[in-house]
């Protein structure tokens, strides 16, 4: 009698990874952690390349369109202003609908608008498209910060945020350098279009490779039935009643305002006597962003070890020292000062960004949005205001303006350190 065919027992499907409070955090050194940080690095690179690719082109806009330096700076200021306001809503939407989808949409839309702006036939239309790109970009920075705060072990949040900000630093450098180099051999339209194409590629990478959130829990403004606007107002009231968070928002405003004012107008200085540098040579100075790539994780790690207050004070003082060194009329000294200034700025931003995620116990997406709103409003207002100081007093005027911002930044950092804000 033939043996009955044997049937192998069914293979059980691997259990789905836990979601919610029981899900493990991403731990430094694991493959999953390295994968996530690499993807966020790519996302940050693309976002900030798109945002800042026009900055080294300001002197070209002045020459091509017969506009003033403050007028040329609108190509960046309208984008950062739109980004700042979009961040206020993006954080709230992501608190309800999730993180990953918002980030993918942000990268794809901003990339498409970058391609469109490269084809814009008029300066007015170019500014309109740059404004829309700013609105689209608002879906990434605050949401990425919230993703890190939720998915990574809190003990490593400072280091992880530093790695993400390192990607933003590389993107800021890459966007600036690439546009000048490509413009030098072709034209600015080709350069801006290529940056837009990079944004679309980054969207595809994030969509395919970034793991979904495991610790995310949808929120409804803190109360059932509360609409989006009501939830926003409730969360803003909660965060703005926290003096420590308000001081951190001020940190972003002051540091970013100082940073953008310097980089907006250092190109004008270097193309004028006594330096008289060609635009492609000026672009080489944007390589100082490499110092930001180094300092972001460095200061983030130091913040976890020594406390964010002390590290914030030290990095703020270093920014002021770098500004002072830039005052000497020598190219090597100016480059050293700009490098130190950049190194310290990304330290300030890394510490403050990581501190936001630890300080805000609820509505983290909106807390990050408020910080970045202040951060980019600093870019918008100080970046444009610096042009008037340049017009009236050249580099001395810009130095006095930025010096005032840095004095306020240092005093604010000392206040945070003294209050031992946690």
UniProtKB/TrEMBL annotation:
Source organism of the structure: Nitrospirillum iridis
Gene Ontology cellular component list: plasma membrane
UniProt KW keywords: Cell membrane, Membrane, Transmembrane, Transmembrane helix, Transport
Keyword NAD: no
Protein name listed in UniProt: YNFM family putative membrane transporter
GO molecular-function terms, A-Z: transmembrane transporter activity
Primary site of residence: membrane
Domain Major facilitator superfamily (MFS) profile: 36-421
Membrane topology, as annotated: Multi-pass membrane protein
